[in-house]
Amino acid sequence: MKVVSTIKEVRENVKEWKKQGLTVGLVPTMGYLHEGHGSLIKTARENNDKVVVSIFVNPMQFGPTEDLESYPRDLEKDSKFCESLGADLIFHPEPEEMYHEDFSTYVDMSVLTEELCGLSRPVHFRGVCTVVNKLFNIVQPDNAYFGEKDAQQLAIIRHMVQDLNMDINIVGCPIIREEDGLAKSSRNTYLSAEERKAALILSQTIKMAKELVAEGEKDAEVLVAKMKKNIEKEPLAKIDYVKAVNGLTMQQQKEIKAPMLVAMAVYIGKTRLIDNMIISEDGQCR
Ligand code: PAF
């Protein structure tokens, strides 16, 4: 496995692979990899001849008061992890490699980005769309892999690919959880022992919501109200949002029906965590 930091090096490698008719899978990440990323890399490994993992803490998707500086980084550990899963190339650029001094072109999306996380993180999705676009242009993958934990991000990227006629297959992979249910996230490392326990309120509330839907709850407002009430029982939790939206458009929905995303962002102390449940058109609720 190679670790490269320049766009030129990525292009040289990919060009060689494409010449040989090989398929390329891209797993875009911000590093500090965990089993959630692991499942994306494994899926990419199974379905492509070559696998590229990008590791880049993208400054453009962080707001001025967010955790860009403190975001955890460990390239050595990440490299070993990627190698153990059979990745072929890590692309780990410096910010200057991705954004020249005079950088001034952005990929901005309306509607889907204006709900849920977009409300409390107004610059976030412009940064995500711009960097993912750049990574797609640099790596030119056949397939790209994203986690369903960031379900709004996944919907936005699918929409961007459709809007901009990009010939890339976007693959969503299910949330990977700790044994006690907490969704795996690089930001879980910010939690103190007490906060780590309190953070279980997110997955417990998602589990409760799944049970309510399985028992026949059809009213999205009732579901969301019950979820909020449950989260409020945890003194360390502060709700950013709990919403039930159409899974494609991200617009609020009254009736529980597929495609649907029931998503939440909750602060546990200073750490903002997200979790969700997806009701897909094949009848699955996950
Ligand atoms: O999900 C992430 O880790 C990031 O938003 C992504 C897709 C790598 C873009 O920086």
Describe the structure.
The protein is an alpha/beta fold and 286 residues long. It has two domains: 2-173, 3-Layer(aba) Sandwich (Rossmann fold); 186-276, 2-Layer Sandwich (Pantoate--beta-alanine Ligase, Chain: A,domain 2). The protein contains ten helices and nine strands. The protein has helices at residues 7-19, 35-47, 75-84, 95-98, 117-120, 124-139, 151-163, 193-198, 200-214, 220-232; strands spanning 2-4, 24-29, 50-55, 89-91, 143-147, 169-173, 237-246, 260-268, 271-279. Strands 1-4-3-2-5-6 form a six-stranded parallel beta sheet, with helices on both faces. A three-stranded antiparallel beta sheet has the order 7-8-9. The relative contact order is 0.13. Pantoate is lined by residues 28-30, 58, 61, 128, 131-132, 150, 153.
Main attributes of the structure:
globular; single chain; Rossmann fold; 10 helices; binds pantoate; 286 residues; six-stranded parallel sheet; three-stranded antiparallel sheet; Pantoate--beta-alanine Ligase, Chain: A,domain 2; 20% strand; alpha/beta
**What is the first-to-last residue Cα distance?**
34 Å
Residues in helices, as a percent range: 25-40%
CATH architecture of the largest domain: 3-Layer(aba) Sandwich
Tell me which ligands are bound: pantoate
Which residues form runs of ≥5 with pLDDT under 50?
none
